[in-house]
Design goal:
By secondary structure, the chain is of the alpha/beta class. It contains 12 helices and 13 strands. The longest helix is centred in the last third of the chain and has 73 residues. Bound molecules: coenzyme A (COA).
């Protein structure tokens, strides 16, 4: 059997930052309340031109460069998100095109749990020998679906992206086990109420139906219960016990939820990675961003056992046990890595320029068509106005002839 080892990683956080004090100027809240109830101090907000696709590309470029791979080396791209650029097309295909990859790509929606679902899917493709290199991304531009007047939700969320390259290997490193769960009976507790069931109408928008709505207390109860259980199940499936776990990387939704889950598991907080203070809840991006920061801070050492665990809309939950092992890449490969990185970057810049140029041409064409259509309408009405006296005269003659 093949194992899916993580050989590349990258993250992207928008430069724009919203602090608790900024929020206190927008809604009836305070820094003290937010810190005490959630642990969040700041969150990053996508700026103009930044979307799920563009942030995914940034994180993916970093992950590919770290893996020493080119986009063309990828066999599959999985993008977990709840806030894609459009309903259709999937942002995954936009990312594939902007990267210049030549492989299948699909979008995965499992709420904040999406990245762990994506990792499990990558492992399934790899273990069967179907694919060798898979890019798994978790990205959110969730700030665009948040009601900035609803203090219960707007203080919680942030934007960002995280990506990993999962590569087939023979040694038991990478994803050793995973647990996926869903309980749709709790769907109403976390939802954006538009879609095929409730189509967008001016009334729906006026009622704020297009915003993310949440029953915070119910989600809190569900999360504290499910995080510990899912992690324990994945650890046991990997044939391990809690003492084998070196680092727990939980979904960063609320510091109190994380602390309660750790207590439930009997895991000390120094074995739990927390970065919620900087990013808030970035939904599907939260676990990959935390993983990348844990690696950057030297908290994932060769041979370490990591447990990733998340929960989210659906309601869903998932956990995965990962043995950290990025065995040294061959010398020749490390020599080529900077070249690969430069090629990736040049390719991305070109693709992005092409996409933007394509969009501008389409918009210009639409505007020209619109203007031409208007000109025809104006000419038609002018012609009708000019011909009206003539019609009237002809009609009069016609009536007179008939009478005579
Ligand atoms: N600032 C100040 N007060 C706020 C507030 C805010 N931003 N948001 C809510 N409150 C108020 C409430 O209105 C309530 O007031 P009341 O007692 O007068 O009715 C009070 O604070 C306590 O509300 P409560 O819901 O009990 O707070 P809480 O301790 O449960 O914290 C959440 C609220 C939302 C932070 C918490 O429930 C939570 O984190 N839930 C899980 C959310 C989550 O993880 N969602 C994403 C899942 S992927």
């Amino acid at each position: 059997m093949k194992y899916g080892r993580i050989v590349g990683w990258g993250k992207y956080a928008p430069a724009r930052v919203l602090t608790n004090d900024d929020l206190a100027r927008m809604v009836d809240t305070s820094d003290e309340w937010i810190v005490a109830r959630t642990g969040i101090r700041r969150r990053h907000m996508a700026g103009e031109g930044e979307t799920t696709a563009t942030m995914s590309v940034e994180a993916s470029r970093a992950a590919l460069a770290r893996a020493g791979l080119l986009p063309q080396d990828l066999d599959l791209i999985i993008l977990a998100t709840t806030s894609p650029d459009y309903f259709v097309p999937p942002a995954s295909s936009m990312v594939q095109d902007m990267l210049g990859a030549k492989c299948g790509a699909f979008q995965l929606q499992a709420g904040c749990t999406g990245f762990v679902y994506g990792l499990a899917t990558a492992q399934a493709f790899i273990s069967t020998g179907l694919h060798k290199n898979i890019l798994v991304i978790g990205t959110e531009t969730i700030s665009r679906n948040v009601d900035w007047q609803d203090r219960e939700t707007c203080v919680l969320f942030g934007d960002g992206a995280g990506a990993v390259v999962v590569q087939a290997c023979d040694e038991p490193t990478g994803v050793l086990s995973f647990v996926l769960g869903s309980d749709g009976s709790g769907a109403q507790h976390l939802r954006v109420g538009i879609g095929a069931r409730e189509v967008i109408t001016p009334e729906v928008i006026a009622g704020g139906g297009h915003f993310l709505r949440m029953n915070g207390r119910e989600v809190f109860k569900f999360a504290t219960h499910v995080m510990g259980h899912a992690a324990a199940e994945a650890i046991s499936q990997a044939g391990m016990t809690l003492s084998d776990v070196d680092l727990l990387i939980p979904h960063q939704a609320n510091l109190r939820i994380i602390e309660l889950a750790a207590r439930h598991l009997g895991l000390p907080m120094d074995k739990v990675f927390v970065n919620i203070q900087e990013y808030g809840n970035t939904s599907a991006a939260s676990i990959p961003i935390a993983l990348v920061e844990a690696i950057e801070q030297g908290r994932c050492k060769e041979g370490d056992t990591l447990c990733l665990v998340g929960f989210g809309a659906g309601l869903t939950w998932a956990a995965a046990v990962v043995r950290w092992g990025v065995s040294e890449r061959p010398f020749a490969m490390s020599l080529f890595a900077p070249i690969a990185r430069a090629r990736t970057q040049a390719g991305v810049t070109l693709r992005t320029a092409q996409t933007v140029a394509g969009m501008q041409v389409t918009m210009a064409r639409h505007q020209l068509q619109k203007r031409a259509g208007k000109a025809v309408e104006v000419a038609k009405s002018a012609a009708s106005a000019a011909l009206l006296p003539l019609y009237t005269r002809v009609d009069k003659w016609h009536t007179r002839d008939k009478r005579e």
